[in-house]
Specification:
By secondary structure, the protein is α/β, with parallel strands linked by helices. The chain contains 6 helices and 10 strands; from the N terminus they run ααβαβαββαββββαββ. The longest helix is centred in the N-terminal third of the chain and has 17 residues. About 35% of the residues are buried.
């Protein structure tokens, strides 16, 4: 998952990352509240794998209803932030690449995947799906969400030579800039993607975010 400066960017952003969820934007806050409710309800009572858990913001949220959670992230800096939070169920964290995790088949009966898909190259999504189907017990729920492209506030995207994957420039509070992998998906593309994961139970698109509830098979 070593794509350009994406990993370095999140390493350097770890201490300020959670501020993204407190933006003074009523539309974003309304959609986020819906995502919070959906994710907790979907994964209630489950033993959850939280892939690319980052600073543990969603881990903490889901811990209010989950039976247990294992969070995985490639970045030690974000895991340090995650360890600072208080959780409401047993939680542990592992530093690992999402494509190389140390878990057994069927070890979890729930999956949390927030804001990871957009940081994967499109050609890497199917290999991740294959790994997920092995780790997650068949018939278990998955909650997936990510950003939509909001044209009026997003800078121009930078495309690769084959016009398959897009990148953007992100800036930290200190002014440092990073070129990160950031793909955006339309509804039809997500339907095609998730057909290889299992059954799509719900797929929702807002202005700022999309979310999916899947049954992994």
């Amino acid at each position: 998952m070593n794509h350009d400066e994406t990993i370095k960017y999140y390493q350097m952003r770890a201490g300020e990352y959670d501020k993204v969820y407190s933006r003074d934007n009523p539309g974003r806050q309304e959609e986020l509240a819906e995502l919070y409710s959906l994710s907790r309800g979907t994964l209630k009572g489950r033993h959850i794998l939280d892939l690319a858990c980052g600073t543990g913001f969603w881990t903490r949220l889901i811990s209010e209803e989950a039976a247990s959670i294992v969070g995985v992230d490639i970045n030690q800096a974000t895991l340090v932030e995650a360890e600072k939070k208080t959780y409401h169920c047993p939680v542990r964290f592992i530093q690992a690449d999402v494509f190389h995790t140390p878990f057994n088949a069927g070890e979890f009966d729930g999956l949390l995947l927030t804001y990871l898909l957009s940081h994967l190259k499109r050609q890497d999504i199917d290999p991740l799906a294959q790994k997920i189907r092995n780790i997650i017990k068949p018939g278990s729920p998955a909650f997936v969400c990510d950003n939509n492209l909001v044209c009026e506030i997003e800078p121009d995207l930078i495309w690769d030579d084959d016009h398959i994957n897009s990148y953007k420039i992100r800036r930290l509070e200190n002014g440092n800039e990073y070129r990160i992998l950031k793909n955006y998906f339309e509804k039809d593309e997500l339907i095609e993607i998730f057909r290889t994961w299992g059954m799509i139970e719900k797929l929702s698109f807002g202005t700022y975010y999309w979310s999916a509830i899947l049954k992994v098979q």
